[in-house]
Design a protein that fits this description.
With 175 residues, this protein is of the alpha+beta class. Helices cover 33% and strands 30% of the residues. α4 links the parallel β4 and β5. The chain is globular and about 40 Å long.
Amino acid sequence: MRALAPQIRPATPADAPAIARVQVLTWQHTYRGILPDAFLDALDVERSADSWRTVVADRRRITHVVDDPGVVGFCTAGPSRGESGGYRGEVEAIYVHPAEQARGHGTALVRATMDWLAARRLTPVLVWALEANILAHGFYQALGAQRLDTRLLRIADALYPEVGFGWPEDALTEG
């Protein structure tokens, strides 16, 4: 039995290695059989941590973490990147450690992130997921997102279709 409930809080630069670890483990778990094994096996936590330090320090974005204790999940969002079709905010990444999934962490992260985006008038909100990641599609749709469009994403010298999902104004800030 856990002594304390998980805490959702803004990430600090000191969280970058833990965020990177969650991202690498989640990619290796989720995308095995979808992306090349060599690509997944080469993912490097230290190199990723350097990138996450930059992301966490960017004041135009937010990265929330689930601290249970220690980072077991995270969500990064900010202004939309690229063509957004009128969506002002974008969830750029959301990952929960495979052993911690289906415990409500993802929903709590999305809700905290939507509140942050709404407070900055960065709504409606867009998120992209690989087409083969059916579990992510169901997760976003269960939270009220609607399927919008598809595009191609280059990963490991190949193109993979990804699907955009959008939340309308104030979709998750009501409760």
